[in-house]
């Protein structure tokens, strides 16, 4: 099994009409003003809209024939949608509503490591593993401890030995916006050990709860998370309206006082991606979920200092993003993919982003 693929992602943008502006969800800010200095980076394409899907998270996978797939979770239709990452053409849909192997119930997070696809399902309360390219089910885990799993990030400790970090944004009672007591918030972040035997069969350990329970650092509402082993850093986006921030943890689960503090994001910090240019340089890109246009905030990889903001021409109300740093025929500098208004995916050329913001041009080569 191919288990050494680095964290990559892709962005897709084909011609589509200017989006309709609708009443925003709980975290979106309608009619917001972009920060001073925000530049426009034109989308290279936006995929045709499909409002029924309710797209959320994205991941990419390089196929054995040299193409790249862009895989999106479709929460409302309970399936995965597969696009050609270079063209934005929809290739197929995977799965159906259900609780069996290869079936989904509100799939949310998605992550590719090698030829294994990890999918978190909020309403099945599990993380499912599928083999690529055939999407054959490999098993599932977390049903015994997860309540509302959302985001996923996978770290390879050793060949065939993975750590899977999962955010669990369960709420108090039936109210989706009532945060549970602090003492329970250690369960906001869990880490599972997944090992593959020589036959490719996964063995999964018990999920370890890592969330901080102190008032200052506890995670209130969570979804996206991405790690950076070079800096022993795991960033977790806290979407709570009073706490909008990127919280920092070490990879062994210790909360720090670092990250991006509240006050920077106008709306929910949603999609999050690491743009690694060299072993220890690059940028973080985080989506500020705004209407009428998403603002993408760029931070220095090492210091987390702000390095600029950009918006597309139409991309709005973004949930997940995926950054595919490897060159493709259409995107030789790499590509950033971003969900547009729950119904389409936009693609930004990373070379365009680097030039527009005056970033290190080595990142776009």
TrEMBL record:
Keywords: Signal. It holds the Pfam family DUF5128. Transmembrane segments: none annotated. Residues 1-17 form the signal peptide. It comes from the Bacteria. The keyword Cytoplasm does not apply. This is 6-bladed beta-propeller.
